[in-house]
Design brief:
By secondary structure, this protein is of the alpha/beta class. The protein is built from 15 helices and 15 strands. It is globular and about 65 Å long.
Length: 372
Amino acid sequence: MIIGVPKEIKNHEYRVGMTPASVRELVNNKHSVLVETNAGMGIGFTDDDYVAAGATVLGTAAEIFAKAEMIVKVKEPQAVERAMLREGQILFTYLHLAPDLPQTQDLIKSKAICIAYETVTDNRGGLPLLAPMSEVAGRMSIQAGARALEKSCGGRGMLLGGVPGVAPAKVVVIGGGMVGTNAAQMAVGLGADVTVLDRSVDVLRRINAQFNGAVKAIYSTADALEQEVLAADLVIGGVLVPGAAAPKLVTKDHIKRMKPGSAIVDVAIDQGGCVETSKPTTHAEPTYIVDDVVHYCVANMPGAVPRTSTFALNNATLPFIIRLANKGYKQALLDDQHLMNGLNVMHGHVTNQSVAEALGFSFVEPKVALNA
């Protein structure tokens, strides 16, 4: 199979779909890899590194899209990239379609086979291709939140961990999954007063045991969430409903009543955000203020640490890339229900039920689309 790796073009996105080490694995499996020039430059990989691994370096994304049978990316294809997709071509990347009607419409029109990292599952009920970026984003959320609390950024002027004699900041993490757990770990490490809210008692038990009581684990009712958010100096939104738009748990009314200069980091922004006043931002302009509350809503947070993120992502995606290349997409999907769960759009049909429901499209079972 011919695999194409274009350079990412989203604002301040320096990650790359495949490292030279990943390319070498594909070449060893008798496949061809085409890499756009300077695709890995942002994280220290030169074109020569890719050539040494066995790739062919091409000058433009248009050449990559025209020749490749499978496109491997990191972020969702931008409009100019979606226009280059063709019928029957495989697209393997993060998509986050539920809050993104224009992208979904373009992918339907392309009739490409679009497999989303974020909805591939595993036999433990996890999301193995989302997990590494959730770990990065969870940890980064505390760094971003600590910065947002500084006075120069519009915050209250608080040091997250305080100092002896001065109380630390109160950090409230909504959601005890991968993002929330990693956020709590970083916040506790910096000495903050940390509370995690979740609707799963099992998750709360795990949080309590993992942090040995250093994190307050509270069942998330509307009343509990309101009390904690209004008392918070920093709120981390880490809610995830796989494939679906994030629920709006923090309302405009909550924002109006929060402490002036408090901050929110909405990690769920890729899926539309779990805060009613959230809107996607970029690394170039990461924050904005609503009702004296600083909002950090960067839609590609791990892009700020692209080297760490690229290696972590490649560790997770490489086995699936090899499987798709070795078997072809039809057999690979039929052999692995977890990979099949990643199929979001195919041959002009929406094959993920959560995406279909969120955007009002007809849902077609993946196996039905596959055999059509």
